[in-house]
Amino acid sequence: MGVEDGPKQIDQQPEMPKVETATKPPDDSEGLASRDLKAEEKVARERDQAKIAEVRASLGLEQAEDQKATKQHLQEYLGLNESDVERVSLIKAKNLPEHYQTQREALNDERLDEVTIAVIPDDLWVKGSQPSESSAENQLILIKQSYFEAQENPDEIAWLCHELAHCQNFLNSESPEAYQDNMQKFAFEDLKTEYIYPNNPVEQYTFIKQFQFLKDQGKSREDVLAMISEHYEDEDFPFFNRLLDSVYGK
Fold first, then answer.
1. Is 138 part of any domain?
2. How confident is the model at residue 111, as a pLDDT?
3. Residue 241 within a domain
4. Is residue 167 a part of any domain in this protein?
5. Residue 147 lies inside a defined structural domain of this protein
6. I need a labelling partner for 232 at 20 to 30 A (CA). Which of 43, 89, 199, 241 fits?
């Protein structure tokens, strides 16, 4: 038996050098997206605010132009000079004092919110004892200042409701011509007098609205007749009584 030359050597794999991998930086894509979104939102807000400012400026210009046109109309209609017309106050119906709002609300018509009320100083008033009148085509109501500002029983007879009803009737008409045509014909042929006023379809509409409001406010038929008698002649009362029949019953 032969003697081995020595212990058998075990083959070993050579040790491979370690490969160092680069460390991946933290992913900040979510943070970047969030910052981008906030930046976009800021830009959008600024753009919206600019648009709002532009609209407000436009409305301001429109309101100024509207008031200028109204005062020009009043200057020509009332024969005023420039300094006098500047004494006229203009108020939108939606901004009327609280004690007038019930009359506007009684007509239940948002279109009337933009009707302009021109408060005319007493020394510029040209309609005598009549405290108000309407220019329905212009969606404009003229009212005597002392009457408008009365502290005791302001507008007890509800002329403002009557004038607003004129504006409403005009808006309901097929055309301006149709409105004017209705002012020029009798509402009740059997009640004809020398004059078409007040017996015409437009006044029929406006007085019924006025009388209905007064009834709802607790005024009796006799109360209404007493108030109306201060402004109209005896020959007009068959017309008024017929309207009161439709509101209060015969």
1. no
2. 97
3. yes
4. no
5. no
6. 89
Residues 6+ apart with CB under 8 A from 92: 113, 114, 115, 116, 117
Nearest-CA neighbor of 106 among 204, 213, 205, 203?
A: 213
89-126 confidence digits (pLDDT tens): 999 999 999 999 999 999 999 999 999 999 999 999 99
Please tell me which residue, 37 or 248, carries the higher pLDDT value: 248
pLDDT recorded at residue 45: 77
Task: For residue range 4-53, list pLDDT tens digits in order.
Answer: 444 444 444 455 555 555 555 555 666 666 677 777 777 877 777 776 66
Could you write out the DSSP letters of every residue in 195-231?
--SSSSHHHHHHHHHHHHHHHHTT--HHHHHHHHTTT
User: CA angle at residue 91 from 77 to 166, to 5 degrees?
Assistant: 60
What is the rounded distance in angstroms from the CA atom of residue 203 to the CA atom of residue 159?
Answer: 12
CB distance 136 to 166 below 8 Å: yes
Judge whether 91 and 119 are in contact, CB under 8 Å: yes
Packing angle, helices 237-248 and 221-228, rounded to 10: 150
Pairing of strands 140-144, 116-120: parallel
Give me the domain span that covers residue 226: 173-250
- Identify the three-state secondary structure at position 89: strand
Tokens, residue 133: 């009148």
Domain count, the chain: 1
Separation CA 57–CA 53 (nearest Å) = 6
What is the reported pTM?
A: 0.75
Cα separation of 163 and 172, whole Å?
A: 14
pLDDT, position 13: 47
